[in-house]
């Protein structure tokens, strides 16, 4: 499993003309929030998803080297199979390392559920949809977490 994390001052996901997920850290009393782009591969498990959710929630990349857990910072989770693109050969990426939707969707849900169980305020995109992700990266800070 891969999670590309960005520290943001705001973020939202739009499907069609509908905002399906939105975080506003300032409204939650936090200086930042996190955008988590989540990709799953074939051998990932629910345990993998839970472990990465815990790592993300406690990752000290927010103001004052604090975590989302410390600051009650909101998290926007967006499924992102393209994190497993293989571009080693040619100009057309291969997606063979990405888990198929039937495997990946429950893993992304497990990741989201684990964050909520830890106490995070979580918004989400819509699995499998064409999404427009809008964000204001704060820093910029972008970190790749892998299982």
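-> sequence recovered:
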């Amino acid at each position: 499993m891969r999670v590309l994390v960005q520290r943001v001052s705001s973020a939202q996901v739009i499907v069609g003309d509908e905002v399906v997920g939105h975080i506003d850290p300032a409204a939650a009393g936090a200086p930042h929030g996190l955008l988590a782009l989540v990709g799953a591969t074939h051998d990932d498990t629910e345990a993998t998803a839970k472990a990465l959710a815990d790592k993300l929630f406690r990752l000290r990349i927010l103001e004052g080297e604090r975590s989302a857990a410390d600051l009650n910072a909101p998290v926007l989770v967006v499924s992102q199979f393209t994190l497993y693109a293989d571009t080693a050969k040619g100009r057309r990426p291969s997606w063979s390392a990405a888990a198929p939707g039937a495997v990946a969707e429950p893993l992304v849900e497990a990741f989201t559920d684990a964050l909520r169980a830890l106490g995070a305020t979580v918004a989400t995109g819509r699995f499998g949809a064409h999404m427009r992700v809008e964000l204001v990266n704060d820093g910029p800070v972008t970190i790749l977490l892998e299982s």
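The two ends are 5 Å apart (CA to CA).
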